[in-house]
Amino acid sequence: IDTVSTADLIAWIRKFRDAVQEHRDELTALDSAIGDADHGSNMARGLDAVVAKLDPPPSSAPDLFKVVGMTLVSSVGGASGPLYGTFFLRMGPVLTGEMDAAALGAALRAGAEGVVARGRAEPGDKTMIDAQMPALSAWDDAVTAGKGVAEAAAAAATAAAAGRDDTEPLVARKGRASYLGERSAGHIDPGAASSALLFRALSDALAARG
Ligand code: ADP
Ligand code: MG
Ligand code: MG
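Above: inputs. Below: predicted complex with adenosine-5'-diphosphate.
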């Protein structure tokens, strides 16, 4: 059976940090158009704090996601810290058994549902969930088709990127960008862009497994 290890998930978090660092200025530029120009620095600071806590490596997925979530909540001041923190805090408790594609998909769904519960955004409100929800649908479709974790993650990454791009014409209804009303249209949502990086990092981490 095709499963992931705790080490694979740690590799994901490290790759997410690296991707956010690489795209930090882009994320901040997106946030300067419809927010307060700090999304890149918020995420980079939070994920640097997370990576600093991964040595020695957590010994289980629940332990990993607890430290990731708590560190993001406590080290990122913006909306994104508590929201991404909740995502990871909700993932951990789901991953106590075998981590196959179905289990990992269920954990990711629990994470995204946590973001919705905390932020009350609906699909189409121009937020990070507009990248996350299509990724989860693609993941579930891959599982239904009998695909393994790497293929499910690749499909999810592609769908998340499309969801990110689809936020461009939307009018924001949650978060700071909503203060702009109609003027928020015509720009990609920064949180959707970072969530596309989240799923791309997972796909890259699972594709690189030995
Ligand atoms: P802040 O807006 O506090 O400066 P960031 O710039 O780090 O925080 O993050 C902004 C991103 O957070 C937005 O682009 C959006 O994707 C996400 N966001 C904001 N509010 C919500 C919400 N209620 N639900 C889901 N995502 C949200
Ligand atoms: Mg901001
Ligand atoms: Mg801010």
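The chain has a mean pLDDT of 97.
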